[in-house]
Design a protein that fits this description.
This protein is an alpha/beta fold and 163 residues long. The protein has one domain: Rossmann fold (3-Layer(aba) Sandwich), CATH 3.40.50.11350. The chain has helices at residues 5-18, 43-48, 55-66, 81-87, 101-109, 120-129, 145-149, 152-155; strands at residues 29-35, 72-78, 93-95, 113-115, 133-135, 161-162. Helix 1 (5-18) packs across helix 5 and helix 5 packs parallel to helix 6.
Length: 163
């Protein structure tokens, strides 16, 4: 599976524009953060057992990378960029806004690792990043109706890290 040239070129251009000047000649790692929120804020999803990712989840997931790597740039992709800009705090983070879903996915494919939330788009973000993947451990919530339908082993790869 490959991206159309114009899609991956747009992703590369945007990432190049986001590269800090201080890192232009140094090796660094990019970690894509996929944040799906808007539809999961509806009460029906909470009742079924979907757990909204918290800012604490993202803080711990981001620390996983910053604690062991010298230079990390986080790239936020989300259906709720305003929430991300308010709650995802890092020294080196950029927020993708205004891109098509295809360009955002191509951006993810140019990253080294992933922090994801539930959903097929998040799954593909992790697949394309093809590095270490961190995901929510508390999903589905134990004892919920969702837990009866969604089996973690069917959805999450065994090497993904649940926090």
């Amino acid at each position: 599976m490959t991206f159309k040239s114009k899609v991956v070129d747009a992703a590369r251009r945007w990432l190049e524009e986001q590269t800090p000047e201080k890192w232009r000649r140094k090796k660094f790692v990019r970690v894509v953060i996929h944040v799906r929120r808007t539809d999961y804020t509806l009460p029906v999803y909470d009742r079924e057992g979907w757990a909204l990712p918290t800012k604490d989840f993202f803080r711990r997931a981001m620390s996983y990378f910053t604690d062991c790597l010298e230079r990390v740039q986080f790239v936020s992709l989300s259906d709720d960029p305003a929430w991300c800009q308010k709650h995802l705090n890092a020294t080196d983070i950029v927020y993708s806004t205004g891109h098509s879903p295809a360009v955002d996915m191509a951006i993810a494919s140019l990253c080294d690792h992933a922090i994801i939330t539930i959903g097929s788009y998040g799954w593909w973000v992790a697949w394309f990043a093809n590095g270490i993947t961190i995901t929510q451990l508390n999903l589905p919530r134990n004892g919920s109706t969702l837990a009866k339908r969604l089996h973690r082993d069917d959805y999450y790869k065994p090497d993904w890290i649940g926090l």
